[in-house]
Design a protein that fits this description.
about 180 residues; mainly alpha; Hypothetical protein af1432; 10 helices; about 65% helix; about 0% strand
Amino acid sequence: MVEKAVAFASKCHEGTCRKGTQIPYIVHPLETAVIASLMTSDQEIICAALLHDVIEDAGVTKSQLEKEFGCRVAQLVMEETEDKTKSWKERKSATLKHLEQASEEIKILVLADKLSNLRTTARDYLLMGDEIWQRFNEKDKSQHAWYYLNIARLLSELEQFGVYQEYKTLCEHVFGKIYE
């Protein structure tokens, strides 16, 4: 099933690159799946990590995912999907609100996704400094800090995983000392 999800996601993201880079977009879902696999061996969660952006960015429907990968994978992807008709702040606020009550499996997906994003941001922040924020729709670094630091707080139940500790370390690197 994982190999099928890799092929499906590769096809969906074919020809696209990560924002502000020449890195093929598929690298992000692949990395997200690897990070998720460090926290769980559940193949459906790993598949959802691979597919987490196909509805949001590639026009795939929930019913297509259900047909290809089953109801659970489709539901996991839906819970990780943002409503792109809303503003950045509305989308991020909705994600944070959802995380207050989310299952551990959703929190694993979110941590995997956000850590992958933060790794890219931290690497490019070293090279570009605050100029990096110009590549995003939301250009205010403090808004990104608000979002990523709240993600850290809401995912603290995953602190036993090394990837959570990496997430916190990268937050400190990019945004400054975080609260305990």
